Task: inverse folding
């Protein structure tokens, strides 16, 4: 048929329909009539346009209320992330030989003269007190923690404060219920990290993410041996802070300042230490390490990128080799610069403390010529400020690397060169 005649025929049909709808106006309201006309016109236009897929009907809840589909996708992502990582998360128990305390019968009036004891008689037959047991000891569980498998042959990453007692024995329970004796293979002298080893093969491992790519508000999932009792406990929250500096304390390692940690409101409990903090892809973005007492769900995790160097070092050398400069310092801020009348408001002020001198004897810093009250401004061109602590910058390098340091000394800039050494536990 000729295209012009085809269009003319279509217009005639539409006109007839419109005429019929006007005749029926007496049985519909003006609003309904307008709706009919609008629908007819839209259908007419669509008949000349490209075909499109009909939108899928919204999911319905039991109460016939549409569900918010992204929420369903989010829940599925959390479940998948947990399923992916859980097989590689382990529970760690710490045991130690402790004296067995025996109770021996006790008479509170036994030291009285005989003439007075007769007045009291045997009034406390069940009283007892600790007594000598001949040095008898018994292996007892004294603590617990978490960790995760980083190699299929049994390397496990955890916290240093979980694995710090050399006199203790450690047992690892894998997700499938198997039990292994564990050996402390390496301890990081500068960070709260340690690597254990169990004798096994073909173990599931975690995927390591990129903690430098984290954003505030993104989902964080913590898994661990909560309270040393509830294995593979899962809690979900968000990344609520980045690059935090906290002072953490533990009886086994004392107090230490931890810089650059991730803050999260995913619940972290005693026993979660050493467990993984995950993103929605099931990748490890941090190692759970500390909680803020008296707060509501404020926990901290060491960024996984800071542990990758330790992992590579253990795999290559069987130990953790941390680079060492050899200075104690005070991070310079605008307030400190004002208080101390410093020439700059950034950098690291080399200054001693009760814990030791400003510059360690025979250290790379001493050999490079660094002095007390120097301000280290840059390391290999990287400015030392609130986002780039001196310790973090040094930790990026390997033992034996040479670094160039820009120093402020009494208001004058000096350039020094240091070769980083291996840091010891002391």
Result:
């Amino acid at each position: 048929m000729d295209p012009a005649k085809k269009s003319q025929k279509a217009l005639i049909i539409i006109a007839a329909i419109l005429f019929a709808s006007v005749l029926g106006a007496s049985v519909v309201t003006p609003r309904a009539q307008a709706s009919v006309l609008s629908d007819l016109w839209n259908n007419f236009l669509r008949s000349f346009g490209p075909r499109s897929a009909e939108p899928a009907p919204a999911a319905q809840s039991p109460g016939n209320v549409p569900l918010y589909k992204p929420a369903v996708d989010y829940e599925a992502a959390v479940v998948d992330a947990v399923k992916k990582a859980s097989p590689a998360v382990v529970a760690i128990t710490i045991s130690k030989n402790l004296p067995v305390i025996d109770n021996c019968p006790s008479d509170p009036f036994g030291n009285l003269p005989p003439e007075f004891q007769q007045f009291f008689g045997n009034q406390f037959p069940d009283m007892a007190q600790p007594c000598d047991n001949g040095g008898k000891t018994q292996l007892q569980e004294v603590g617990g923690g978490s960790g995760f498998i980083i190699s299929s042959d049994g390397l496990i990453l955890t916290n240093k404060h979980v694995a710090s007692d050399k006199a203790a024995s450690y047992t690892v329970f894998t997700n499938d219920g198997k039990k292994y004796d564990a050996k402390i293979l390496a301890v990081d002298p500068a960070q709260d990290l340690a690597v254990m080893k169990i004798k096994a093969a073909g173990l599931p491992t975690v995927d390591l993410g990129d903690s430098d790519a984290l954003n505030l508000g993104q989902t964080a999932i913590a898994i661990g041996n909560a309270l040393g009792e509830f294995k593979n406990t899962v809690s979900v929250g968000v990344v609520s802070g980045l690059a935090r500096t906290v002072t953490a304390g533990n009886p086994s390692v004392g107090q230490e300042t931890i810089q650059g940690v991730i803050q999260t409101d995913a619940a972290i409990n005693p026993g979660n230490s050493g467990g993984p903090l995950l993103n929605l892809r099931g990748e490890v973005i941090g190692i759970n390490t500390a909680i803020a007492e008296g707060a509501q769900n404020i926990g901290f995790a060491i960024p996984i990128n800071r542990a990758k160097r330790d992992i590579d070092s253990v795999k290559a050398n069987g130990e953790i080799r941390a680079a060492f400069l050899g200075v104690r310092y005070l991070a310079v801020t605008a307030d400190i610069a004002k208080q101390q009348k410093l020439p700059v408001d950034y950098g690291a002020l080399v200054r001693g403390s009760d814990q030791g001198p400003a510059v360690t004897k025979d250290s790379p810093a001493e050999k490079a010529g660094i002095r007390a009250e120097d301000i280290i401004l840059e390391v290999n061109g990287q400015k030392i400020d609130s986002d780039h602590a001196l310790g973090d910058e040094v930790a990026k390098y390997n033992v034996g690397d040479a670094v160039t340091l820009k120093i402020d000394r009494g208001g004058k800039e000096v350039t020094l060169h240091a070769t980083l050494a291996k840091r010891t536990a002391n």
Observations:
- Helices lie at 3-23, 30-47, 69-85, 114-117, 305-317, 334-340, 364-368, 390-395.
- The chain has eight helices and 23 strands.
- Residues 17-34, 47-56, 58-62 have pLDDT under 50 and may be disordered.
